[in-house]
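Let us begin with a simple case.
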Amino acid sequence: MKNKFRVIFSVFFIIAGVNHFIMPWFYEPLIPEVFLLIQEINYFSGFLEILFGAGLFFQKTRYASAIGIIALLICFIPAHIYFIQMGSCVSEGLCVHPSIAWIRLLLIHPLLIYGAWKCRKN
């Protein structure tokens, strides 16, 4: 069961990372304007999601990749807060009910962090 979860979790992050390159227009408006180099941040975070997701497949890199995913998810918290502050809607982009944005921040995000933590062991 652990291996199946780790494979699903790995593939999830690899796909999410690839999406940063395929659909940058979706992710870039979610990055707070206070940050410089928004396009670069988007591509770098996508690269890291792919790298860490793939790293979960290998015993030698599993722990570091899991910790990397946790760090990345923590770095994403300002984007979640920014999205809520924008009214949970990006013009010509993602729009959800505010309760969904809060659930994403307060429930789904911690569950992803927990999932990464569980994947760290061999």
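The second case is a distinct protein. As before, the sequence precedes its structure tokens.
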Amino acid sequence: MTSPRTVGDALEAATERWLVAQGLRPLARQVRYRLGEIDLVMLHAEVLVFVEVRYRATASHGDGLDSITRAKQKKLVRAAQLFLQGQPRYANAPCRFDVVSVSGASTEPHFDWLRDAFRVDG
């Protein structure tokens, strides 16, 4: 039996490959901090993109985009801040938060990419 983490890792890798085909350049995967994790960090032209990958085998509980709560957004923002503190070369780069909702069978996933999914409250 395949563990949920193994499936998640495989889907993140598939999402990364798909985003590369869309023109993004990978920088990091599964960046973990005590207060949160960033699934993928990529560059889209000169924009630093923090990507949250959400998987739903079926839409019975909504799609992956529906699962990004305000609390999850805050964790993503905090993790992004920590990433930027450790990567000063990107300190002045424009940043955005994208969500890729992955649905369907893990062997033939469908990707729904929401660019600039949420903004950091100023």
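The first helix runs from residue 4 to 21. The chain has a mean pLDDT of 87.
Keep these points in mind for the review questions at the end of the chapter.
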